[in-house]
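Q: I'm building a small set of examples for a reading group on sequence design. Run inverse folding on the following structure and report the sequence directly after it, with nothing in between.
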């Protein structure tokens, strides 16, 4: 008899917790503040090209402030040198006015590069950090702007230069 009372009490407690958790999920507006999207980036010089795509998710804390994470994929080609990079980043977005978006982004990439020499090619693999500050013009869900890599290293960076245009879209 005692075991059945314990089982009954346990089932009631589980049912109660299940009902409460369902109710709190309905009342929670977490997912109403999550926005999905990402960005694309292009960089050109007279001897090279850099392209990137970055799907991401951000949490909109207020109408002005958001933060999130992103996956990154980059490809670059300068003369006969090729770079392929992948990794992730964390970013923050701040809109002091609706049309202006300021951003910071810390990115960590795994770089696979092939450097052509006159006799052969050299392959190299390494991790590379980047820290961007940026500004852009926002209209609805789209922001177009420029970002600057404060950690730019001309010898190792996958980017053509420290200044890079971007387009971000979030829904």
């Amino acid at each position: 008899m005692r075991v059945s009372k314990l089982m009954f009490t346990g089932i009631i407690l589980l049912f109660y917790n299940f009902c409460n958790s369902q109710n709190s999920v309905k009342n929670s507006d977490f997912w109403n503040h999550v926005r999905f999207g990402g960005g694309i980036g292009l960089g050109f010089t007279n001897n090279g090209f850099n392209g990137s795509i970055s799907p991401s998710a951000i949490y909109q804390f207020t109408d002005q402030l958001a933060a999130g994470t992103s996956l990154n994929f980059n490809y670059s080609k300068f003369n006969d040198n090729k770079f392929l990079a992948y990794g992730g980043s964390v970013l923050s977005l701040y809109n002091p006015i609706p049309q202006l978006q300021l951003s910071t982004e810390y990115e960590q990439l795994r770089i696979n590069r092939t450097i052509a020499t006159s006799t052969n090619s050299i392959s190299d693999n390494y991790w590379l950090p980047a820290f961007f500050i940026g500004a852009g013009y926002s209209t609805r869900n789209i922001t177009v702007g420029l970002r600057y890599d404060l950690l730019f290293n001309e010898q190792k960076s996958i980017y053509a230069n420290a200044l890079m245009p971007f387009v971000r879209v979030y829904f």
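Residues 29-170 form a domain with the Porin fold (CATH 2.40.160.20).
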